[in-house]
Amino acid sequence: MKLNLPIIAFKLADRKPNLHLCTNHGNNLLSARLLSPGIVHFDPYAVYIGTAEEIRTIDQASLPSDVIVVGEEAAQALSETECNWLSFEEGDVPEIFNAVQQVFDFYNQIDSELYDAVMQEQDIQSLLDICSRFFDNPVHLVDSSLRLIAHSSELDDDIHDESWMEMLSTGYASVTVIDALKKANLLDELNRGREAMLVNLGGFILPYMSANIFAHDKRIVSICVREHSHHLEEAQLGLLDHVATVLTNVIAKRQNLHYLHLGYVERIMLDLIKGNSVDTGILRFGLSQIGWNVEDSYYLLKIIPDFKDVSGGTIEYTGAMIKNLFSGSILLSLSDVLVLIVNLKYCTKALPNIFGTLETFLCKRKFKCGVSLKSHDLSALHGQYMLAAAAIKNGTLIEKDKYLFFYENYVASHILELCAKMIDVRILCHPEALKLYEHDQKNEGTLLYTLYVYLMKEKSLVMASQELNIHRNTLVYRLSKISEIIDADLNDGNTRLHLIFSYEILRYLDYFK
């Protein structure tokens, strides 16, 4: 395999080499050769090893691009040249040549084993076990949602690394690490970069290297090396790029098969969300493959990420964290928007607590989430998606500080939004509601809202006063005041409904106009 001078210097660090680079030090060296005066043409894929005296006999313009010089005047002999060089002040040429050759042999042996394992289609963990020997450190894979896919055998519970232990327990990259990467403005480069990176965030987070594997210009997997047994150096980045290249076709093939196997239902659901028609028989068959039925009860959640997650490439990661809250759910991606289909037969009893946890999570991450109505027809995903979107739109305007919006709380404002496109909805208000609204505007009062709560609580003085957070006697006084201003029969069901809806209309006009 191809190496470079930084890798050789790293491997022979105990000999205290002096490294000098003039040009790009990508992996391009296949062998080591002895420098001799008779050489006319130098192999561009070889590093030449000789003494300072031998270097001086060669015209500087003719020197090979990579040289290792041995002896006390090693560094001085090459100080003004334009080649990449490595110098050793101690030892002789045969000794250094053998040491460098052993470096090539070491990596070539591992590389040969890796290629053999790939050709034999060995399992991922076996491949990673071989990869870990390149670095003398454990290796693991994460997918585009930062979900742990596989790891080498050394990565077990004996490793004292808090971020790794969190990944083992949750199956996903540590939230602490993600937040630290965001703070350091490294997420975008790390997720989209085409070359390996060494990440050192400090604190209790151990350094690690990461290289991305792409398929059709989309990152599908990242291969990571954790600093555990030995110190990581930037010189090893070229090795990680090489490993990523070897594994690219293997990973892409296996990820594609995984997608074809598990993505059938997801593709059907994406079609339904987009409003495309899907044959009922196809839908039923697809759902049966994952234990679902068309008639199952479900919620649809539309999730709008924070722009930092969009630019940082962590949408899928955060979406996966949300998905983990809802057992048996399906996560879909629509450009920069996430959609979660929650089948209620898997989590109905725990749902209130789950939504509480979700709201806390959304607030921390600055995500907006709309929840559709409960539905019993999975073929109606497009309509439910529109309701979840309406919940976000209406909820954000009415309750600006919230992050979780249930459509059932915004039904009236959504209906009014639709009606407002055709008529002036104010004309639909009950005249007495308008009279009370105008009185409140003049006197900065809340009598219309008091009446609304009283009617919504079915004229219960106790429940209404609790909702308004006022004393029962205060509510009685306000109702008496209201009866002086308006003339409406609150015992009539139609009147009560009209007054309630009138409040919704006027609230809508206050927020949306």
TrEMBL record:
Residues 447-502 form the PucR C-terminal helix-turn-helix domain. InterPro entries: CdaR-like_regulators (IPR051448), PucR_C-HTH_dom (IPR025736), PucR_C-HTH_sf (IPR042070). This is PucR C-terminal helix-turn-helix domain-containing protein. It comes from uncultured spirochete.
